[in-house]
Structure formats: C-alpha cells, structure tokens
Automatic annotation (TrEMBL):
Region ranges (Disordered): 34-95
Organism: Posidoniimonas polymericola
Recorded superkingdom: Bacteria
Gene3D superfamilies the record matches: 2.30.42.10, 2.40.10.120
Name of the featured protein: Putative periplasmic serine endoprotease DegP-like
Keyword Metal-binding among record annotations: no
First-tier enzyme category under EC: hydrolase
C-alpha cells in the first residue's frame, strides 16, 4: 500500500496546528474553572500485575453533540481534584478475552500461518471495540489532539504538548458525536506526558493502564487516535504494529502516526494502555510514545496539576520555527493539498484542499520533503509567496507563516546547528 510522510517543518506536533504526516501502511480505516491544585490529587492507579484483569468499560453520559461545548463560567465547574479522588477500579473479569492461543501467538517472532493471522485479527477487533469509546479528540485552546480516558470519573491521559499547561479549558469530542467539558491537569514537558479531567458528570467509558514494566520489544500494539482532526462521522482509525525498542523514557513502534494522533492511546492486545502517542521521526517506522511507566511514576504530580521539565529533557527554552498548516500527498509536479486546517497560515491565506503547491518564493517544489525544507528555512511569521495550481489555473498566495516551538514533539529532527 502506498504511504507518504510529509517533510520536517510542516509538522508542529501531532496536534493539528501544522502539517500532518500521511502514512497509511498499517491503517485499518474503519468507518472552566481552574482545578483546585491545592486539593489532594487522585490516588495512584492500582499497580496491576500483567495478568490481572483490567477494568471494564462503563456506559457514558455527556451533553449531546449539538450542545454548547464552551466550559461553564468560573465557579460552576466541579473541582477536578475533588472529583478525581478515586483510582480506576478493579473488576472481576477482563474486558478483552485472553486465552492460551492468543498468548502463544503473541509470543512468536511473527505469525506462522493464516490461523495465527486470523487470531491476531480477532484480538485486535476486540481491543478496538473495547477502547474506541474511551478514545477522544480534545480541543485545548486553538490546538486539537487526542486523549484516552482511564477512569470512569473522567481522568484522561494525553501528550504534554496537547495539554500544554495546567488549568486550561478542554472540550472532549467522543466518536459518537457527544461533547464534554473539562480542564488540563499536570504536564511533564521532559517526557511529553499530560493529564486531563472531564468536569461534566459521568460515568465515562474508560480503558485501564497497563502495569509498569509490562511492555517488551516485539509486543503487538494497537494505535488509536484522531488523525487529521476530529470528524463526527468517523470513529478513531486503527493502526497495528509492534514495539521496536524503549529507551530514555520513550517507546518506539512501527504503529504509523499522523497529525492529530498526539495524546491517543497505544494499547496492548489485552486492551490496556501501554503508551501515549507523542511524536514522529523522519522514517515511517519512527513513531514515538510516552511509556505508561512515566504516568505511573509521576501520577501524583500529574493529577495534582503540577507542570515541570524542559522540552524533551532539556531545561533550555524551546526554539521556534515556521509552519504552514496543511496536509497532503506528494504527486508529480508538486504537493497535492488534501486538508487545510482552519485558522492557520494556509487557511488564512486562501489555500484550499485540492490545490497543488508548485513553488515557494520562486523556488520549485517537487514534493513535500522539498516544501518542508523551504518552510523550515523561513523565519517564524515570515511572509512568503506560494504558487499553486487550482483547476489547472496558476495562482499565487501571499502567506504569513505561523510560529511553533521546534522542540515540541511531532516536529521531526532538524540538523544540528553546529
């Protein structure tokens, strides 16, 4: 299957404030008041054993899809710290069936026959059916990302760059079209972990966190999220892959991520969250996630609304660079734009879906890698002229580029300044 990833500077993070990477190699494609930081944070989740049955999904209640998503005025929202004083509860039966057959197949280096593949397929479907209701799109400020609910009272895990900072209003977007209001809690910028809390009344569908230390290279994993933004008539798409390695508080898999996936869950075949989508590299197999171990280790600080750490392990302020705010595919003669994100640079300039970008400031653009290089060479907020073909007619657009932190997860690696 054909797949394409956009070039470096068009991505900001996996939130939809810039260009998204399009890679469908593993896609299954199926149809505020500030939190009371001073209050006692939620208790840490139970440290499950690897074979312990995770909590079952709960029915959800929230405002209907058409209701106003704006958070309540100050003083009307419940305190997330007060609401979240109970850890996820244990249950007596596993939500995702698990037996000796799938255990044996999951331990193999690779499937050996059609029966193995069918067994994996069946297990993945069970995981998806269980986890999809708890996988949500989130709007924080002007950014859009993903999150996963991990307790029936509405605690949710996301990426740090999606949450951004504590005490921000959040709109949760469910796959069935419902919305709920909430706030951001803690953020650890060093590893890109974050926590959110739904402040509307639950209970909410949720999936359990895997126990710390339960993930190994070669494990099958399922990725869910809201690539390219939330769509009311689309459930969170599914991608399947395996864990490649884990080091420096980062989990690397070949589960293909694209724009909007940031904050979504990485699940094992038991239906437990083993990681949270964070960023992508230059290669299609370079997809990075925050290990669930990091959330276990810093639970009290995240739930208590603390913010700490430098960008991706450094205390230095993040540098900034330009971004455009489109997604698309490389074609012969340019870059076909398949999505333009509302409110960002390309959208404000008048670039449309279906346009083919052919040049930037007079320099020819043959593919997204070249477009990325040219955007990256610009100063943040610089004005450039982008040439496009629209319905066979040449057009020029004057575009004032946006600004994003280089060190935000999701911005692919840049060459060293040295």
């Amino acid at each position: 299957m054909y797949s394409n990833r956009l070039a470096a500077p068009l991505l900001t993070s996996l939130t939809l404030v810039t260009v998204a990477f399009f890679a469908a190699a593993h896609a299954v494609g199926q149809p505020a008041a500030a939190p009371a930081v001073e209050a006692q944070p939620p208790a840490a989740p139970p440290r499950e054993q690897p074979d312990a049955p995770p909590p079952a999904a709960q029915p959800s209640e929230s405002p209907q899809a058409g209701e106003q998503a704006t958070p309540k005025p100050a003083g009307e929202e419940p305190s997330p710290s007060a609401e979240a004083d109970s850890p996820p509860q244990e249950v007596t039966r596993p939500p995702v069936p698990w037996g000796a057959e799938i255990e044996a197949v999951s331990q193999k280096k690779s499937p050996e026959n059609l029966a193995d593949l069918r067994l994996i397929q069946k297990q993945v479907r069970s995981v998806v059916e269980f986890a999809r209701p708890a996988t949500v799109g989130v709007e924080v400020g002007g950014a859009i990302g993903s999150a996963v609910i991990i307790s029936e009272d509405g605690l949710a895990l996301t990426a740090g760059h999606v949450a951004m900072e504590p005490n921000q209003r959040v709109t949760f977007l469910f796959a069935d079209g419902r919305r709920a209001r909430g706030v951001t809690l803690g953020v650890n910028s060093s590893v890109d972990s974050g926590m959110l809390k739904i402040t509307d009344k639950g209970p909410w569908p949720f999936v359990p966190m895997a126990p710390a230390g339960s993930t190994e290279p070669g494990d099958w994993v399922v990725g869910l999220g809201q690539p390219n933004g939330y769509f009311r008539d689309r459930a969170p798409p599914v991608r399947l892959g395996r864990v490649l390695f884990e080091e420096d508080s980062t989990l690397c898999t070949d589960v293909t991520l694209v724009g909007g996936d940031s904050g979504g869950p990485l699940l094992n075949l038991r239906g437990q969250v083993v990681g949270i989508h964070s960023r992508i590299g230059r290669r299609i197999v370079s997809n990075y996630h925050v290990p669930i171990d990091e959330y276990h280790a810093t639970w009290d600080r995240l739930a208590g609304g603390q913010m700490w750490g430098g960008s991706l392990g450094t205390a230095e302020p993040a540098r900034h660079r330009a971004f455009l705010g489109v997604a698309g595919n490389s074609i012969r003669g340019g870059c076909l734009i398949t999505q333009v994100y509302d409110g960002f640079a390309a959208s404000r300039a008048g670039i449309h879906e279906g346009d083919v970008i052919t040049a930037l400031d007079g320099e020819q653009v043959d593919d997204f890698e070249e477009l990325g290089r040219l955007i990256n060479a610009q100063k943040p907020a610089a004005t450039v002229v982008i040439a496009v073909q629209r319905d066979g007619k040449p057009l020029d657009f004057k575009v004032r580029l946006g600004i994003i932190s280089v060190d935000y997860p999701g911005t692919p690696e840049l060459e060293s300044d040295s």
